[in-house]
Structures are given as structure tokens and as C-alpha cells.
Design goal:
- The chain is α+β, with helices and mostly antiparallel strands.
- The protein has two domains: about 70 residues; about 130 residues, 2-Layer Sandwich (Heat Shock Protein 90).
- About 60% of the residues lie in helices and about 20% in strands.
- A five-stranded mixed beta sheet has the order 1-2-3-5-4, with helices on one face.
Length: about 210
């Protein structure tokens, strides 16, 4: 429980820092260009260029805030449903060309009986699993499997990368975040290095 709370607090701190440093800094730049144009009036030769730059910066701010919003609450779940959100997550990774993710989703046709926070937590776990593969595995292919059972949800993620080091199976920030969420949900996780190379993660989450 404490681990989950600490992970949540760290996430909030990261978002607060990004809002302060990145968004705050970009808004200051946009304000500077707009105020300079207003002070000098339309006679300013660089007025159009300044306003265009302000518009460009504001567009970046909009994009950043939208990304932060997705991190806080995956809006795609609310708009298109949980199953579609998972498939879209894999599609976005595939679109990058850095990793090819095959996705198997069994069940989740009707998720109205699930509490919204539970679905969001599963989505966050899937996000973190893919993020870890992209960041550490040096993999070209991955498989993400999500299966709905009557009393539990099972997740399996595997890749063809270099494989997790034996000494790191219980450590690493990304794995700590995943373990904390799973512990909070009273689930269990097994992480192992595959003989043929790559890493296998198996997660089971009880359904209340």
C-alpha cells in the first residue's frame, strides 16, 4: 500500500514539475511575444513573426497539457472503451516503428461491472510494461496478452530483447511502479528471463 502511494506521489510530483518548468516556461515566452507586439503596435516590422511564434508556442502548450491529461486519466478509455484503449496503446507503439507489438485481448466486451479506477490501473500497468520494453529491452517484437476470467484478470507481456538481468528482476524504477500497483490490487507478478532471450512478465489481478 505504501509503495503504491509513494509511486502515485512521485507521478504527481513529475507532473507538477512539468507544469511548472515546461508549460510555465512556454507560456512566459508566448506572453513575452504578445506583450511586445502590443507595446510596439502594428508598426512593428516583426509583429507578424512574433504572433506566429506565440501561436506555435501555445500549440505546444496545448499538446503538452493534453499529454499530461492522458497521464492523469486515460481519456481514450472514456471515449472509446477499455478494450479499444488497450488496442490503441499497442497501435501507437507500432506506429512509432521502434517496436512491433502483437496484442491479444480476450473478453472485456462489457466493462460496466468494473470500477473505473481498476480499469485505469490495468491500463497504467500495460503502459509501464510497454515503456520498460521500449526503454530497456532492445527488442524488435513484443506480445501483450490481456485475458478476462470470471474471478481474475491475467496479463502477459514478453519480448525478444536482451532479457532482464538476474540481479534486476526485483529492482528498477519501472518494475517498482508495476509491483506497487499490483500489490495495491492484491495481485501477483512473476518476472523471468526467457531461455531463448527476452523477458516474460506474468501478472494476475483478482476481480472483486
Amino acid at each position: 500500500m505504501q509503495g503504491a502511494l509513494d509511486a502515485e506521489e512521485n507521478q504527481r510530483r513529475k507532473i507538477a514539475d512539468q507544469l511548472h518548468d515546461e508549460v510555465g516556461g512556454m507560456l512566459s515566452l508566448a506572453t513575452l511575444n504578445v506583450s511586445s507586439t502590443l507595446e510596439k503596435g502594428r508598426g512593428d516590422d516583426q509583429a507578424e513573426e512574433k504572433l506566429e511564434k506565440a501561436q506555435e508556442v501555445l500549440f505546444s502548450v496545448s499538446t503538452t497539457i493534453r499529454e499530461l491529461s492522458h497521464r492523469l486519466t486515460p481519456i481514450v478509455i472514456e471515449k472509446y472503451g477499455f478494450r479499444k484503449a488497450v488496442e490503441d496503446l499497442a497501435y501507437t507503439v507500432n506506429l512509432s516503428g521502434k517496436l512491433q507489438v502483437a496484442t491479444v485481448v480476450v473478453g472485456f466486451e462489457d466493462t460496466t461491472s468494473y470500477p473505473a479506477p481498476f480499469l485505469r490501473d490495468i491500463y497504467r500497468i500495460l503502459q509501464e510494461l510497454l515503456h520498460n520494453i521500449l526503454k530497456h529491452a532492445q527488442a524488435t517484437e513484443a506480445l501483450l496478452e490481456l485475458v478476462e476470467h470470471p474471478r481474475q484478470v491475467s496479463i502477459m507481456a514478453e519480448d525478444n530483447g536482451v532479457g532482464i538481468e538476474e540481479g534486476r528482476i526485483s529492482g528498477g524504477k519501472g518494475l517498482e511502479t508495476i509491483r506497487s500497483k499490483i500489490a495495491y490490487l492484491n495481485g501477483r507478478v512473476e518476472i523471468s528471463r526467457k531461455k531463448e532471450g527476452g523477458t516474460l512478465v506474468v501478472i494476475e489481478l483478482p476481480v472483486k
